[in-house]
Amino acid sequence: MKALVYTQANEVRLLERDAPAMAPGEVVLRIDAVGICGSDMHAYHGHDPRRLPGLVLGHEFAGTVLGSAHPMWRAGMRVTGNPLITCGHCEYCVQGRDNLCARRTMVGMTRPGAFAEQMGIPGQCLIALPDTLGALQAALTEPAATALHAINLSMKSLVRPLPECRVLVLGGGAIGMLAALLLRHYGVDRLEVAEVNPLRRTSLQQHARCVAFDPLERGADDNAFDYVIDAVGSIQTRQSALAAVKPGGVVMHIGLQDWASEIDMRKLTLAEITLLGTYTYSTADLRATVAALDRGVFGDLSWVERRPLSQGAQAFDDLHHGRLASAKVVLEPGA
Fold first, then answer.
1. Are residues 125 and 149 in the same domain?
2. Positive or negative CA dihedral for 92, 237, 256, 291?
3. Each residue's pLDDT tens digit in the chain (335 positions)?
């Protein structure tokens, strides 16, 4: 089969790989659509020690069952799934917080991912798709669930209802865009997004109907926002998030660009800021996101760019150089 393989820093190549074998309890999928994630780009740049050269990346997928050794799934069924493979019996899994499972492994990190014509995955990870949801839309389940999980978690800490809040999103990549779209659906009218790429700013203004500005030209207002989402996670955005949030406000940290940095702990303490971290989503979040995508909660997704898998290397290069207006490229192995 054809697979897009991470071969070295700043290089992915379309190569021949063996089709996945049918393991007990697993399902072999034909990959119909797969998104390029920011974490795939992080690995592509050689910045993720967990993802080593020779790996097939990709974990934002929609597919069709080709063969199954799991009783729930049969050939022809359309699915997406949870790329986190969890133990199912630790305290977090039984609480429904399987994203925190300490024994988790992951598609596209510890085992071959979805940038390929076929992929194997445990049947327990899969989620059925409604007939009304296309493969491209379904491939956005994973990043959209990340936004949904983060925002729903934040709402437990906000003093006032979310629609009353002035909200800032730092970063207009896929998570930032999807968060902006969901915030608008939830009724947020005062929404600003900081994004350095002018093409993405135009896309944000068009599709999320928000104020999009270049943080290199002007910073966000200090002490002005009830709720700030850092969808980048750099040293600079962490500092900007703490500066922008108003006393008593909430900062949600999603991005993982930099591993560590100093933040303004004095303001965090004296202004009673709530700083939250979030990691991915639960399986319940993924199911809720499939339903939300099917209802059109995230809009028509016309900002998403689709390309055949054969153009995957060029897509990575275009994303690396900021040539695209779209915050998300979806590859289609069958195209």
1. no
2. positive
3. 999 999 999 999 999 999 999 999 999 999 999 999 999 998 999 988 899 999 999 999 999 999 999 999 999 999 999 999 999 999 999 999 999 999 999 999 999 999 999 999 999 999 999 999 999 999 999 999 999 999 999 999 999 999 999 999 999 999 999 999 999 999 999 999 999 999 999 999 999 999 999 999 999 999 999 999 999 999 999 999 999 999 999 999 999 888 888 999 999 999 999 999 999 999 999 999 999 999 999 999 999 999 999 999 999 999 999 898 899 999 999 87
Nearest-Å Rg of the Cα atoms of the chain is 19
| Domain-located, residue 50 | yes
Which helix (H) or strand (E) segment is 246 a member of? strand 245-253
Q: Residue 66 is encoded by which pair of tokens?
A: 């080709």
Judge if 178 and 261 occupy the same domain.
Answer: yes
Helix, strand or coil, per DSSP, at residue 30:
strand
Domain count of the fold of the chain: 2
Q: Are residues 127 and 156 in the same domain?
A: no
CATH of the domain at 85: 3.90.180.10
Q: Is residue 294 part of a domain?
A: no
pTM (2 d.p.): 0.95
In terms of residue numbers, what domain contains 156?
145-277
